[in-house]
Write a structure and sequence with these properties.
Layout lengths: L8 H9 L2 H10 L1 H7 L1 E2 L2 E2 L1 H17 L5
Antiparallel strand pairs: 1-2
């Protein structure tokens, strides 16, 4: 039984490898949460949103399964 709300493992592996489509899929998955975290005084702060997306991509590219 698969949980359809989760990102498939093969997409995660491809995102970690740096495949652009997979990275975009992960970013789209977390878009709502990133927008929520970037709210400031009732408005979405674009600078914070961009930094959160950049940190997510940076973390994906640094992540390794072999540890």
């Amino acid at each position: 039984m698969r949980n359809k709300k989760l990102i498939p493992f093969d997409v995660i592996q491809k995102a970690i490898a740096g495949e652009p489509e997979a990275v975009d899929t992960v970013l789209r998955y977390y878009t709502a949460h990133i927008k929520y975290l970037s709210m400031y005084k009732g408005y979405i702060n674009d600078d914070i949103q961009d930094r959160l997306k950049a940190k997510l991509v940076e973390a994906m590219l640094k992540f390794r399964f072999d540890r």
